[in-house]
Each structure stands twice: as structure tokens, then as C-alpha cells.
């Protein structure tokens, strides 16, 4: 082995072993390089080689030393990537029959931990994105080759794994670390193709083979990346289209040549379509806020501000004005639509508690804005009929109508509380004397949390105050979230019971909470607490434990049923108790499918509830069945009860007597699963249990408990299942119209209606959208788009917003599908373009497509500022943005039959992608990598084979041979700056290198059998052709002499 390789290996190993400081390392590298110069690729390979067969932790010193070698220009990006790829799990193994596969103990089969690859990708992405790299055309070419190879290898590896899993029937998702590495490689590729020098090289004629191979690799890598990182994949795809980095090897061979030529002409025509002026309509922001609040609140601060800045850029003044105006429009629209009181309160809370906080963020931004001016302008734009003065609205309030006369005052008081305007301005803005002033105290989250920890009674007071429309709700929600986690962490079940009982019966408080934090932030600690619930060994009374468990569970179910949450939204695992309860909590188990333990537990509960010879539910029944097990067999318990009652095995009186236990607080939450099963079972037409079911319904629904706590809990339970019960009772009424016992049940649940806040439309709304004059969902949706688009032109005269709810779009997508829904929107925009209102209609279309949704959202709502961020929205079908992209790709074929429609699709697609791209750029992760604090790994010896870099070296040598000249002025200035920053002559300490000799005398016990450096065979990149003449590279602005880069190309 080369003596220089041995010296460098010994030096690097000893530096890692003794944790040499950076300044000492720099001096030592300079000394050793002067004595024993070595190509950068070999130095990088010696540093990055694995030092143990199963390395799972990363030595942070490797990253530190790698950074220094890059800064000292002893290695470049291609050297680092080449070596990292050689030791990556993505690197393909030899497949030739003549090649003997080494054993697992062979160092050539060792791999580095994925964290190292992730850090390297992010570090190099930063260098290419800020223009620091490439420092030479040789580095650029070699980097492109190895990155293309790595992308292809990653796709091949994933495809092979997927095929193996499919063959074995195993469904396996990629691990998070693999996703991180994939995303990091995507970021690096993004940095490359957004680098002007890299793009300039790829556009050279003599590098067309390199461009072809890179484009092929990119075309296969983007679909793989889109499976886990849609934002990065979208940005790569946009850059790919911009620079035409497409795989053109799959061009259609068969087909009509004339037709293909016609499509190409049509594509050119579409490229030349002129965009209409971009305007921010009043309706556009109105649609966005409607989408945020139509069901489960999606009011994440980061999402809202990101969206607003993507529309208004630096115009913070108009941004604030339009935000306030749209919030008032939302309330006016809800009043005109006669939305129920819970919806009205939710919108009022958003206006008075959320909007002032968003305005506070705007006033603190770098773009100046005057909050009072924006508020004044907004109040002049709102509908005075919807928001009358106190004197005008007094008669309405006496008549209990849905007056909004107090909303302006509440909003201005909240703004004064947050310092957005002086309290003295409120009377001027209202035009009359306010009925009350701002709150005396502005709450702080941490202060409230500490008060609750010191005095538990405070929590009940703050839960009551969360309903106040005074601007303090955000701080209260933050304190409640922190306090919930605190109680769970401290295992304080008694306090948790009281807290959950208080909150579960206040549905409006639940609405306010989810306007300020993610569902997981509140519910994940509670779900984990329930999942880990265990009996103590010295427990004597078990009924109180059921009481505590049930209270906590009821609060979780209250959130779940109100907003149709899944375990995914709660941030819990599929095998956890709450996840299993949500999946199976309303399904009975057939007797043959019961486990032995479940059979024993079910028998115990049946005897305890209905056996007249017993004393009722004894302590043994509770002790022999954990609460988690009980709630999973509740539907089966009800199934057995109904069946026994129908068969007269149990008398009706016995059943009613036993069911009274279920109306006590310690078992009351079980009625959620029991009533849900009964409602589902009653609608089946394959049973003869109707009489027994109706008797039990009357007992459980109409007969409320007597105690106050039980009554409140019973009301909450009935509210949660009211929609299912109503559907069941109305179905039975249609089947048996002569029955007289169904009407009282419908009347009993009527006060509990409208509990659910989901994306599903009511029958009243569906009938309105499908009956004359609209007749169909398509024409109804087109009519809504038309009204919203024309509101822009009539806004000065028509202050009231058009009637609209985002549930209409949800319903259209669900019933019609994404394609027909998109076509309805596009057709109406096309129609508006023909009447000269195209710019406003385009903004409406963009707002509809880009609006965040509960599922399949084009705009992610991650709640990144919450205690626990949300998971990405589930994907069940193509969203409107993806369908628009498919239509855009097919737009050329429409030019001959519908040219205006094709142009509309192109314009709409451009606007949608531009807006989402601007938002994704703001939300992309930065390349700030935290190096994990790991222990020093055992540094062993490893024989390395020699690197065969023929393909990369040929390309680099050709690059250098084709270039001439010195560094330009900019590069010389950069070089001087680097020299100044890397001048370590004054650094303290030094590292004596005299002890490093060819025999490894630095450590007598260290093996010097170093072997050869590893090979990286890139010859299969194929088709690189003769790259000997790379032309004049001078216009790239880089001199290409050997001395310019400090690289030794003699051995390349």
C-alpha cells in the first residue's frame, strides 16, 4: 500500500480516538498534506470508512473533521459523495456469478449509519444552494455523476424491497430514517438543479450524455420522493420542467406523426398563453377562512400566515385589512345561512380570540403596518345590516334572534387588550359608547399554568372563561394543554377526572381549544394515560377507578365524535387501546370469536347486571375486568342483552334494572358504544328485535339520571351519538309509520342535535343544491363560483357575502369525484373569462383548489407550533390540485376542440403551482443539522480497496483540459476571504506528526494491514461518450488549472 495512505489512515484514526480539537486538526492536516499529499477522494474514503460492522450511532467528530477538510480544500463535494456512496446501504452489490460474495465480517460489507448520509446531503445542499460550490467544473461533473448514480440506486433498492414485500405478502412502510435520507438527497438534488453553474454545464452540447443520465435518474427519483415528501418532490418537478430535465428515452415510437406534430404545436401555443393580472379578491380570502372553520378547525398560525404572505407578499397593511374583513364576512355569511348557535360561537371566537393574535404577529414583522388603520378600514367594509349598532340590534336581542350587534365591540376590546389600538379609539370606531371595555388583565400562558399547578380550583375558572370573547382564550388554551400533560405525567387520576368532567360537558370550549392547538397536543397524553392504565396490587375498591377511567375516556370521545377524529389525528399507534376502541368500539363479537378471557368477563358482567339473585355489581366484577377490556366488549354485552330480551330469557324489568347501572357515572361512557351498536343493529332488516330495542332506547335515551353529574354526562353521551340515533329513528319511522313510540325519541334527542362538526352536508343542504333552480351539484357549484367571482365587481355596492359553505366542495368531490368537480370550476372560470371577469374568477378557482382540507389537502396543516404537531392529512383520492396537474398535462390535446378551456387550465395551473410553491419554499426545512451526542465508537482497522474512478476522472480531466485562465476577480476575492478565515497560524496547540510513519508507529498496537481503498465503479452510468473536449468553460467564471483547485489529477 502507498505509504501516504498508511500515514493518513493512522492520522485520522488517532484524531478520532483522541478527539483532537479543530484548530489542532487543521494545523496537522496542513503539515501532513505538505509531507504526504493524497487525492481528495482517498482522504475522504479514509475518514468516512465504517469502523465497526453494525454501526448504528454516528461519531460527530467525523462530521466535524469532514467540514474542516472541505474548508481546507483537501476534499471536494464529489470526493465526499463518492466515499459516502461506497459505504451506503444503497450501493448496489456485485451480481456477477464469478464474483465471490464476501462474508458479513468482511469490512467491505460494512455500512455507515444513515444519519451520516443525511448530514452530508444537507451540508452539501447548503453549499450548492448558496453558490459556495462547485469550486470547479471537475467537481461539478463528478458530483452530477455520483448523485445520478445514487438516485438510481435508491430507486432500485426501494423497488426491490417493495417486490419482496409484495411476494411475501408483507406490508411494510419505510422507516423514518430512510425517509429522512431520501428527503436529504432530494434537497441536495434541488440545490444542484437550482445552481446556475450546474445548469450551465448540463446545457453544454458535449455533456449531453451526462444530461441524459442525470435526467433519467431524476425522472425515476421524483415519483419515489413524492411518496413521502410531496413538497420537495413538487419543487423538484417544477425545476425539472423549467430546465427540461426529462427522460426522453420513452418517447412514443408508434402513432401518427402528424398528430404528434400537432400536439407539439399546441403545446407551444399553450406555453405562449398570456397570464391575466393577479388580483386578491375579497372572496378569495373568504373561501380560505371558510375552509379553515367549516369542520375541525385548521387554524394553525403558521399555515395561515404562510398562506397570507404568499398572496400579499410584503403588503402587510392590505393583508391585515382583508383578514379582518374576511373574518366579519364569515360571520355575516353564517348568520344569513342560519347556521346553528355552536357554529356562530365558533366563528365569533375566531374573530375575537384568534384574529388579534395574528394581527400582533403582523405588527411584529419586518414589513411595517399600522393595526389601527387596518381595523378602521376593515370596519368600513363590513355589512352594517349584519353588524348593527347596539341601538339598532337591541330589539333583535330581546327577540332572541341571532344578532351580531355585540361582535364589533368584542373584537375591538380584544384588539385593545393586545395593544393593537388604544382603548380610547373604541368609541370612535363603534360610533357609540361601548357597553363594556377591554379586560383588565391580559393572560399569559405560563402564568396561568403555574397558577393551576399551585391551585387546582383555578382550572375550573379558566375553563369557564374560555367561552369569553375577550381575546384571552389563546393563553387559556395553552395553559390547559400544558396542564393536561402535567396531570398525565404526574399520574394524578383524581384531578384528571375532575378536569375531564368539567371540560367534556362544555362543547364550545372544545371548539375554542382546537382553534389554537392540534388535537394530538390535548388528546395524545390522555390516550397514552388510558393505554397505560393498570390496577395497583393493593387496590381494594375498583369502582372508583372505573369512575376516573370513564371520565377521561369520555373527554377523548367527546373530541372524537365532535370532529370525526381518527387515531391518526390523535397521534397514537394503531394498536393502542383508544385506537382499537375507535375501530371496534361499536362492533359486537360473535360468540364463537370471543376469547376465553372475554367470555369469562362477559359472563361476569351479564350476571352482575341482570341476575336478580345477586346483590348487583360486586367488586369482583370490576377487579376481574380491566376498564380497557370492558369497553371493548360493551357492544357484545348489548347484543347479548337484546337477544336475551327478545327471546324472553331475560324479562324487560330485569334488563331495565340492569341498565340503570350503565347510567351511573362510573359506567356512563359505555353508552356511547352501546347506543352506537343499537342504532346500527336497528336499521338492519334481518332481525326481530325491534320491540326490545325500542324499550331499551326509551330507557337509555329518555330516562335521564337523577344526580347532577350523571345528568350532565348523560346529555354529553346522547349528544355524541345524536346524529346516529336520528338517522336510525327516521329510518324506522319510514319503515313503520304507524309506530307511536319513535316520535318521543326524536323529540328527546332534538336538543342535542348539531353536536358533530364534520365535513358532511345535511339533507337540507343536499336538497337545496340538487333541487330547482340548480338541479344538480355541478350547476350548483358553478353558480357558487359565479357568485363569488362577481362579488369582486359588486363589492362596493354589495357588502354582504354570497351564500357559501366549503361543505359544498367537500360534497361535490365525495359524490362527483375530483374530475367532475374540477371541470365544473374550470368551466365556470372559462365562462367568466368570456365576460371579462376572468382575473377574479381565476382567484376564486385558485382559492378553492389551494384551500386546506381535512383529508387529501393540497395545503398541509402541520400545527408545527403546537406541543405535538399533527400528522399529514390522510390520502384517500386525488385532490383538485393533482387532478388539475393531470388536466394540464393533457391540455395540448384540447386545443383543437376547446382552446379557451385549454388556456383556462393552463392559467389556473400556473397560478395554483405558483402559490403552493411560494408556500412550500417558506415551509421547507432548513439545513441546520444537530449532530447527535453519541459516544465514541470503537475504532477498528479496515482494509480498503483502491478507488477506480475512471468514469468520473475522464469527465473531470476533459473538463480541465478544455478550460484555461486564472480565477476571475470574484473568485479571487472569495479565495482571499477563505484564506483569511482559515489562517490558523495563531491557533494554540499543535499535533506532532513525526510519530506517523509508514509502519503506523503512532500506535504499536494498531494494525497496519490497511489494504486498498474501495472501488466505485461508475462505468455503468453508460453513454457518457467521449467527453474529452468540453469546450471553453471560461464563461462559467472559473479557472480550471490544476493549481487553482489544489487537486492532483495526475492519477485520475
TrEMBL record:
Principal subcellular localization: nucleus
Region described as Disordered: 87-110
MF annotations from Gene Ontology: transcription coregulator activity
Keyword Transcription regulation: yes
InterPro entries reported in the protein's UniProt record: Mediator_Med5_fun (IPR014801)
Domain of life: Eukaryota
Gene Ontology BP, a term: regulation of transcription by RNA polymerase II
Entry keyword annotation includes Nucleus: yes
Record-linked Pfam families: Med5
Function comment: Component of the Mediator complex, a coactivator involved in the regulated transcription of nearly all RNA polymerase II-dependent genes. Mediator functions as a bridge to convey information from gene-specific regulatory proteins to the basal RNA polymerase II transcription machinery. Mediator is recruited to promoters by direct interactions with regulatory proteins and serves as a scaffold for the assembly of a functional preinitiation complex with RNA polymerase II and the general transcription factors.
Family: Belongs to the Mediator complex subunit 5 family.
Subunit structure and binding partners: Component of the Mediator complex.
Protein name (Swiss-Prot/TrEMBL): Mediator of RNA polymerase II transcription subunit 5
Organism of derivation: Lophiotrema nucula
Gene that this sequence comes from: MED5
Amino acid at each position: 500500500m502507498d505509504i501516504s495512505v498508511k500515514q493518513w489512515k493512522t492520522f485520522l484514526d488517532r484524531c478520532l480516538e483522541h478527539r483532537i480539537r479543530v484548530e489542532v486538526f487543521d494545523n496537522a492536516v496542513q503539515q501532513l498534506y505538505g509531507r504526504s499529499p493524497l487525492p481528495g477522494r482517498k482522504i475522504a474514503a479514509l475518514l468516512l470508512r465504517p469502523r465497526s460492522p453494525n454501526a448504528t450511532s454516528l461519531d460527530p467528530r467525523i462530521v466535524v473533521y469532514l467540514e474542516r477538510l472541505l474548508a481546507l480544500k483537501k476534499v471536494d463535494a464529489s470526493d465526499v459523495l463518492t466515499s459516502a456512496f461506497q459505504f451506503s446501504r444503497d450501493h448496489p452489490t456485485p451480481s456477477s456469478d464469478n464474483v465471490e460474495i464476501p462474508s458479513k465480517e468482511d469490512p467491505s460489507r460494512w455500512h455507515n449509519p444513515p444519519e451520516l448520509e443525511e448530514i452530508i446531503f444537507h451540508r452539501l445542499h447548503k453549499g450548492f444552494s448558496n453558490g459556495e460550490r462547485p469550486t470547479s467544473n471537475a467537481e461539478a461533473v463528478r458530483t452530477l455523476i455520483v448523485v445520478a448514480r445514487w438516485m438510481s440506486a435508491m430507486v432500485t433498492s426501494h423497488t426491490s424491497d417493495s417486490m419482496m414485500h409484495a411476494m411475501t405478502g408483507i406490508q411494510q412502510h419505510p422507516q423514518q430514517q430512510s425517509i429522512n435520507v431520501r428527503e436529504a438527497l432530494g434537497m441536495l438534488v434541488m440545490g444542484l438543479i437550482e445552481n446556475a453553474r450546474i445548469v450551465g454545464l448540463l446545457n453544454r452540447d458535449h455533456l449531453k450524455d451526462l444530461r441524459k443520465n442525470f435526467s433519467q435518474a431524476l425522472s425515476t427519483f421524483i415519483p419515489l420522493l413524492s411518496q413521502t415528501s410531496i413538497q420537495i418532490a413538487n419543487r423538484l418537478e417544477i425545476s425539472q420542467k423549467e430546465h427540461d430535465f426529462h427522460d426522453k428515452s420513452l418517447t412514443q415510437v408508434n402513432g401518427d406523426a402528424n398528430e404528434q406534430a400537432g400536439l407539439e404545436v399546441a403545446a407551444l401555443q399553450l406555453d405562449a398563453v398570456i397570464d391575466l393580472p393577479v388580483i386578491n379578491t375579497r372572496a378569495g380570502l373568504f373561501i380560505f377562512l371558510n375552509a379553515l372553520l367549516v369542520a375541525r378547525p385548521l387554524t394553525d398560525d403558521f399555515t395561515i400566515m404562510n398562506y397570507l404572505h404568499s398572496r400579499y407578499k410584503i403588503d402587510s397593511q392590505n393583508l391585515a385589512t382583508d383578514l379582518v374583513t374576511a373574518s366579519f364576512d364569515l360571520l355575516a355569511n353564517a348568520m344569513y345561512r342560519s347556521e346553528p348557535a355552536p357554529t356562530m360561537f365558533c366563528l365569533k371566537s375566531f374573530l375575537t380570540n384568534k384574529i388579534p393574535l395574528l394581527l400582533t404577529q403582523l405588527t411584529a414583522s419586518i414589513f411595517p403596518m399600522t393595526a389601527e388603520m387596518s381595523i378602521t378600514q376593515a370596519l368600513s367594509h363590513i355589512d352594517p345590516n349584519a353588524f348593527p349598532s347596539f341601538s339598532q340590534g337591541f330589539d333583535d336581542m330581546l327577540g332572541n334572534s341571532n344578532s351580531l350587534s355585540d361582535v364589533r365591540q368584542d373584537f375591538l376590546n380584544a384588539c385593545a387588550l393586545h395593544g393593537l389600538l388604544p382603548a380610547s379609539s373604541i368609541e370612535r370606531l363603534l360610533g357609540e359608547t361601548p357597553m363594556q371595555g377591554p379586560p383588565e388583565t391580559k393572560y399569559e400562558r405560563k402564568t396561568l399554568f403555574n397558577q393551576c399547578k399551585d391551585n387546582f380550583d383555578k382550572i375550573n375558572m379558566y375553563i369557564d372563561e374560555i367561552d369569553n370573547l375577550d381575546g384571552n382564550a389563546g393563553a387559556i388554551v395553552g395553559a390547559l394543554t400544558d396542564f393536561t400533560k402535567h396531570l398525565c405525567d404526574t399520574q394524578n387520576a383524581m384531578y384528571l377526572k375532575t378536569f375531564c368532567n368539567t371540560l367534556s360537558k362544555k362543547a364550545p370550549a372544545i371548539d375554542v381549544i382546537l382553534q389554537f392547538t392540534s388535537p394530538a397536543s390535548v388528546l395524545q397524553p390522555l390516550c397514552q394515560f388510558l393505554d397505560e392504565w393498570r390496577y395497583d396490587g393493593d387496590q381494594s375498591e375498583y369502582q372508583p377507578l372505573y369512575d376516573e377511567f370513564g371520565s377521561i375516556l369520555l373527554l377523548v370521545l367527546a373530541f372524537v365524535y365532535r370532529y370525526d377524529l381518527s387515531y391518526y389525528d390523535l397521534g397514537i399507534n394503531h394498536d393502542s387501546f383508544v385506537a382499537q376502541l375507535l375501530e371496534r368500539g361499536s362492533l359486537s363479537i360473535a360468540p364463537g370469536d370471543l376469547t376465553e378471557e372475554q367470555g369469562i368477563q362477559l359472563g361476569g358482567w351479564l350476571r352482575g347486571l341482570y341476575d336478580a339473585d345477586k346483590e348487583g355489581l360486586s367488586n369482583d366484577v370490576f377487579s376481574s375486568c380491566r376498564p380497557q377490556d370492558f369497553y371493548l366488549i360493551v357492544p357484545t354485552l348489548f347484543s347479548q342483552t337484546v337477544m336475551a330480551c327478545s327471546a324472553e330469557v331475560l324479562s324487560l324489568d330485569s334488563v331495565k334494572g340492569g341498565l340503570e347501572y350503565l347510567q351511573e357515572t362510573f359506567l356512563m361512557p359505555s353508552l356511547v358504544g352501546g347506543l352506537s351498536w343499537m342504532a346500527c343493529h336497528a336499521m338492519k332488516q334481518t332481525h326481530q328485535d325491534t320491540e326490545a330495542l325500542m324499550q331499551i332506547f326509551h330507557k337509555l335515551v329518555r330516562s335521564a339520571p337523577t344526580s347532577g353529574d350523571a345528568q350532565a354526562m348523560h346529555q354529553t353521551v346522547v349528544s355524541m351519538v345524536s346524529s346516529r340515533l336520528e338517522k336510525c329513528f327516521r329510518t324506522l319511522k319510514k319503515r313503520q309509520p304507524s309506530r307511536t313510540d319513535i316520535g318521543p325519541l326524536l323529540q328527546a334527542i332534538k336538543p342535542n342535535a348539531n353536536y358533530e362538526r364534520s365535513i358532511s352536508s345535511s339533507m337540507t343542504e343536499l336538497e337545496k343544491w340538487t333541487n330547482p333552480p340548480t338541479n344538480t351539484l355541478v350547476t350548483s357549484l358553478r353558480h357558487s363560483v359565479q357568485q363569488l367571482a362577481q362579488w369582486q365587481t359588486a363589492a362596493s355596492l354589495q357588502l354582504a357575502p354570497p351564500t357559501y359553505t366549503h361543505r359544498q366542495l367537500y360534497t361535490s368531490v365525495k359524490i362527483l369525484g375530483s374530475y367532475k368537480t374540477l371541470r365544473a370550476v374550470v368551466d365556470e372560470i372559462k365562462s367568466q373569462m368570456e365576460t371579462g371577469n376572468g382575473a377574479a374568477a381565476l382567484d376564486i378557482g385558485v382559492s378553492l383548489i389551494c384551500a386546506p382540507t381535512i383529508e387529501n389537502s393540497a395545503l398541509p396543516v402541520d400545527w408545527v407550533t403546537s406541543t405535538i404537531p399533527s400528522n399529514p392529512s390522510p390520502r384517500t383520492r386525488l385532490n383538485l390540485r393533482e387532478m388539475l396537474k393531470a388536466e394540464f398535462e393533457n391540455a395540448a390535446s384540447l386545443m383543437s376542440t376547446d382552446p379557451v378551456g385549454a388556456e383556462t387550465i393552463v392559467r389556473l395551473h400556473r397560478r395554483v403551482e405558483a402559490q403552493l410553491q411560494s408556500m412550500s419554499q417558506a415551509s421547507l426545512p432548513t439545513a441546520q443539522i444537530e449532530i447527535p451526542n453519541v459516544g465514541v465508537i470503537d475504532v477498528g482497522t479496515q482494509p480498503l480497496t483502491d478507488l477506480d474512478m475512471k468514469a468520473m476522472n475522464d469527465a473531470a480531466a476533459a473538463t480541465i483540459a478544455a478550460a484555461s485562465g486564472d480565477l476571475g476577480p470574484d473568485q479571487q476575492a472569495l479565495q482571499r476571504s477563505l484564506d483569511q478565515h482559515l489562517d490558523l497560524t495563531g491557533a494554540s496547540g499543535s499535533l506532532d506528526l513525526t510519530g506517523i510513519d509508514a509502519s503506523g508507529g503512532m500506535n504499536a498496537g494498531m494494525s497496519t494491514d490497511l489494504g486498498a481503498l474501495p472501488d466505485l465503479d461508475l462505468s455503468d452510468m453508460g453513454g457518457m461518450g467521449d467527453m474529452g473536449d468540453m469546450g471553453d468553460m471560461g464563461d462559467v467564471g472559473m479557472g480550471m488549472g490544476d493549481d487553482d483547485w489544489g487537486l492532483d489529477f495526475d492519477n485520475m
